[in-house]
């Protein structure tokens, strides 16, 4: 799946959340994560945090592994000190 600039239109993760009634902003709020983190996961730019992994399954009833590249799940997300986004 890899990097996906047009996350709102083309991301499988975004499409599945939309089917469940959530846009990325609402889903991020429900998961308790920063919007930008969820966008970056959907685009394949960062590893998913545990709240995203768990929250996606809670909101959609499906495992996130079906909708993102394996790279996104290969390592845990690590919040960088000084970052302006919450994990």
From TrEMBL:
Source lineage: Bacteria, Bacillati, Actinomycetota, Actinomycetes, Pseudonocardiales
InterPro entries in alphabetical order: Cro/C1-type_HTH (IPR001387), Lambda_DNA-bd_dom_sf (IPR010982)
Occurrences of domain HTH cro/C1-type (ranges): 12-67
Name of the protein in question: Helix-turn-helix domain-containing protein
